[in-house]
Give the backbone structure.
Amino acid sequence: MGWTPAVIPELTTNWMERAILLWTEEIEMDHVTGEIKETYRSLLWQMMCALAEEFTQTGVYFTNEVTDGLPWEAIVKKQYESLYVFDAAIIPKSLHTVYKDLDEEQFMHMQTDDHLYIADKAIWKEAP
């Protein structure tokens, strides 16, 4: 997906969104809770980590089709109500201060010098 200042006026340059689409029914244990099957958790997390190493300008988010792009738009537009609308995220150091109000009840997280790793407890059950 390509985004320009003509579409999102808050942008100062063009942006490209890369998305990998997965068959939800295949990777979820239960469509009501959204819990990820254990067999896919490691693979999904490894993919996210690889993308986070290559694309450092913004976070890498694991979302569903309804919430796709919302956390990034929240940062760009400085409208933070959708900031935490994801199942997992890897946030670069440059955005750590944006994610300072993390809900400890909903998310598990770990911070390193370079990244903030966040996962929704209900979706992942254990730290990826």
